[in-house]
Amino acid sequence: MANSESTHDRDNLPAGPIAGAAYRDRPDLPVVAGYLAALVLTAFATVIASALESVAAVPNLSLIYVLPVIIAAIIFGFGPSMLAAVAGASAYNFFFTAPRFSFQVEDPANVWAIGLLLVVGGLASSLASLAARRQAAIKLRLRQEQALQSFSSAVSEARQPRDMANRAAAALEEMFHVSVAVMTPADGLLEIISSLGPITASASELAAAQSSLDQGHLVRAGVYPFDTSRFDFWPIKAPNQQPVVLGVAFDLQEYPERPDLFIVVVGRLLAAALSSPSTVQPAMAE
After folding, report:
1. Which H/E stretch holds residue 192?
2. Which of 25, 29, 75, 270 has the fewest CB atoms below 10 angstroms from its CB?
3. Homologous superfamily in CATH for domain 3-24+141-284
4. Which helix (H) or strand (E) holds 274?
5. 181-202: per-residue pLDDT in tens?
6. What is the pTM of this model?
């Protein structure tokens, strides 16, 4: 099967809870958007603080500026939340301490209030960011486990090698939201029998995949002698089973923790399914 055709496998995914999850663009929010949002939240807090002050004397008015810090930490992360803390302390100093509309501070008590706001903001930012990361990690693990469970059920129903490979690629794409390539040897050379995502394996990456299969161990992206490879390649080999190589193009800046825990299981299930007597092997050929 020609590699040029394999890149269009996403259009031929079989129906099912996992197989239908073709690659979806998930554009990340630009980093600058989080920082701009932190400033907007701080400005909104200033408006609220000014409105409250005009109605009644409010003690500890500076605590209003903790809210933008927590919101920014939960939604955008540590950097924007720290900007919200600094912007909040500056806004409180400028608008609500004497002399007003100046960054000069006359009352030593206000110096402590501003310093305390920064400390509280920093602590709240760290704790909220940590909680958000843990929640994201839990959601990620649940999604991965559900994708694996769905794949293990769906692959047993498939009979064509391409269907099985499509389900494996779709399961991995659902787990990690990255480009995936599934390869098996044919006539001594590796062939891509399924791929998902905007990144497709080039000839040099096929060489890296072949090396991983020959040596029987993981070949990392961007590591000599395959410096230009964008995929990590996992070889799956077992006695009396069809060898499989799974390529996953992780973002090196957001590399997941222990992805092999799921990738190897998917590979072993796929290899076992491809080796089953019920599999219709001639369907791999065009």
Report:
1. strand 189-196
2. 25
3. GAF domain (3.30.450.40)
4. helix 260-274
5. 999 998 888 999 999 999 999 9
6. 0.63
